[in-house]
Design brief:
It contains 14 helices and 13 strands. The longest helix is centred in the middle third of the chain and has 16 residues. The chain has 381 residues and is α/β, with parallel strands linked by helices. Helices cover 41% and strands 14% of the residues. Strands 3-2-1-4-5-6-7 form a 7-stranded parallel β-sheet, with helices on both faces. Strands 10-9-8-11-12-13 form a 6-stranded parallel β-sheet, with helices on both faces. Helix 2 crosses helix 14 and helix 5 crosses helix 10.
């Protein structure tokens, strides 16, 4: 799709007509992404399906600037649906539909009227019962689980709610493997740095790190001569642009400050000597992907499911931050530089703790895409 053009309903109608001309065999597997950043979660699975199994993929995105719309890969046929997404979802006809979107069938996006097998692929390694709405995964047929925590949580939820059991696949988490491999390459080729880099990357919501103490935190770090990268969640950029504009106005003249508005690149994750977050999925990816500790600000947890404690299982993200990171109160912002020094001094101890955690809580580290693709091929058969 030509990037110089703009999205319109008429263009989506033409997309619909184009899709209708594709044979059912070529439409066996459909992927859906809300925006371009989600391709990094699908990439490994798509590579396996297209290269190893020679499968044709239909890739639907709601991001008009998504680079996938310009792909030269003959095995990927991309489409753009936004205004017509609800209609597309209701009538899609394929064998397997893969998505990272939660709450299927709970709001406006419904299951198709056609017999479609829905596969959920996680875009965060966090637990299923605190950061997601109640019933967020109930209407999927299969879940590609990141680790044993997902299996235990979903089975317990099904049992408590008397739901039919869905297929839970011991898959793993490609996104984490991608970060791990990129970090290994980065370490081998990176030049020595004079200054330490701190990445501030919170979750989104009105009580995240940027909303709660972003300005003061950045000031403390810049004053101690750190390089500071602020990487807001895409939802923060969408819902609170005025906050980001304020931070830019305040700090943009400092050459050690960067605001990173795109999450399609992992470069800042690789460069950061220490991550500062709240209680978000990125702290799992950072710690388990780069084997380095992090700081988690002690602000109110992002709880989408107020009844999460009824499950009786501690969320993985809470377990991780109590074991391999430092939880810091907002009243202790001035102490953060000394805490950073301590983390870096003891990074090898933290690394060993992180390796143990990863081995215990992750399926198929390094081969998750193979496991997921093998399962999807069984569904096609």
């Amino acid at each position: 799709m030509n990037k110089s053009k703009k999205p319109s309903l008429w263009k989506e109608v033409k997309e619909w007509k184009r899709l209708s001309k594709i044979s059912e065999k070529e439409k066996s597997i459909v992927f859906y992404a809300e925006h371009s950043g989600y391709y990094s979660y699908f990439e490994g699975l798509i590579d396996e399906l297209t290269k190893k199994y020679n499968q044709q993929i239909i890739y639907v995105t709601s991001d008009f600037s998504d680079p996938i719309l310009e792909t030269k890969n003959k095995k990927i046929i991309p489409f753009y649906f936004n205004n017509l997404l609800q209609l597309f979802m209701s009538f899609v006809k394929c064998k397997v539909f893969v998505m990272t979107l939660t709450d299927l069938n709970q709001f406006h996006l419904k299951r198709s009227i056609n017999p479609v097998h829905y596969v959920y692929l996680f875009h965060a390694a966090v637990s299923t019962h605190m950061m997601y709405r109640f019933g967020a995964f109930d209407h999927y047929d299969s879940i590609l689980c990141v680790g044993p925590h997902h299996v235990n949580e979903i089975r317990k939820h099904e049992e408590m709610q008397k739901l039919p059991t869905k297929a839970l696949v011991e898959a793993g988490y490609y996104r984490l493997e991608r970060i791990y491999q990129a970090y290994q390459n980065y370490v081998q080729n990176a030049s020595p740095k004079k200054k330490k880099t701190i990445l501030i990357a919170p979750s989104w919501g009105d009580k995240n790190v940027l909303e709660s103490c972003g300005q003061q935190l950045i000031e403390v770090l810049l004053k101690k001569d750190y390089v500071v990268i602020v990487r807001p969640h895409p939802e923060t950029a969408k819902r609170a642009p005025e906050l980001l504009e304020k931070l830019v106005a305040m700090f943009n003249k400092n050459r050690h400050f960067t605001l990173e508005t795109s999450v399609s690149s992992d470069e800042s994750i690789l460069k950061a000597d220490v991550l500062i977050s709240d209680c978000s999925g990125i702290m799992v990816e950072y710690a388990l992907g780069t084997e380095r500790p992090f700081i988690s600000m002690d602000i109110p947890l992002k709880i989408k499911n107020p009844s999460y404690q009824e499950l009786g299982i501690e969320p993985l993200e809470l377990l991780l931050r109590s074991k391999v990171g430092r939880i810091v109160s907002m009243q202790d912002l001035e102490r953060i530089p000394s805490i950073i020094t301590g983390l870096l001094k003891n990074k090898e101890k933290y690394r060993q703790d992180i390796l143990s955690f990863r081995n215990e809580h992750l399926f198929n580290f390094g081969t998750s895409s193979e496991a997921g693709a093998k399962y999807i091929m069984k569904l096609l058969e």
